[in-house]
Amino acid sequence: MKRLNLIFAVALVSIGLTTIGCGGSNGDDASAPPAEEAAASALPTTPVASAGVEGEAEERPRFIAPIRGPADIAYLAPDTNVENGEVVTRIVLQNRATGAIAGLKVDEFWWDSDRNPLPGDSQRLRQPLMPGEVVEIELRVPRDNRMNQNQYSFSHANGEVNAQLVEDLPDPEPEEESENGETEG
Fold first, then answer.
1. Would you say the C-alpha torsion 135, 136, 140, 146 has a positive or negative sign?
2. Does residue 159 lie within any of the structural domains?
3. What integer pLDDT is reported at residue 73 of this predicted model?
4. 89: pLDDT confidence band, cut at 50, 70 and 90?
5. What's the domain range around 160?
6. Which residue stretches of 22-150 are H helix?
7. Nearest alpha carbon to residue 69 among 128, 156, 129
């Protein structure tokens, strides 16, 4: 019987504390702002850039729709080196499509001299690759003495990729100058 009384007392105290903690009040709500007003006042306000002002319109991030279906990229000849017992392959590629490439994935496959598959690597870009953007992807595979030949496969979240090997890619855009005429660095 003592346990039943103890359980009842604990339940009563729990319900009372829950009621007080979850919004039970004395009825004087005039001094406290509503939750929506408090949340709105906590957010920083930023002025909307007008479309007529050239400098402000460029600062806003633009949404570029991702490519659906085949996408075009260009890449340099991969640079493969052995570092600390791993075969490291670096591939520099550029988006040549008209839209962003979402979820670009590069797979590397390794084969031995008898054309038996060996372990490879796969990397996916987390951010969309914007048109004209150049990125470097690094693939790492444990070194195996049987490695003879490798192969690359490109794909993206919404289809396949038409990859073209090129001799060189255009240089990245030059850094913008600050207000006092010096380059940022």
1. positive
2. yes
3. 93
4. very high
5. 71-165
6. 35-42, 54-59
7. 156
Q: Given this model, what pLDDT does residue 43 score?
A: 47
R_g over Cα of the chain: 29
Reply yes or no on whether the pLDDT at 50 is more than 50. Answer: no
Listed in sequence order, the residues at least 6 apart from 139 whose beta carbon sits closer than 8 Å to its beta carbon are: 88, 89, 90, 91, 106, 108, 120, 121, 122, 123
Residue 4: the pLDDT is 82
Secondary element (H or E) of residue 10: helix 2-21
Asked if the model's pLDDT at residue 45 lies above 70, the reply is no
Q: Which one-letter amino acid corresponds to residue 177?
A: E
Q: Is pLDDT of 75 > 60?
A: yes
Domain-located, residue 4: no
pTM flag (> 0.70): no
Let me know: does 23 contact 34? Beta carbons within 8 Å: no
pLDDT of residue 25: 56
Q: Is residue 173 part of a domain?
A: no
CATH number at residue 158: 2.60.40.3230
Distance CA 29, CA 2 (A): 41
How far is the CA of 72 from the CAs of 66, 93, 111, 160, 168, in angstroms?
Answer: 12, 10, 26, 9, 16
Count of the separate structural domains present in the chain: 1
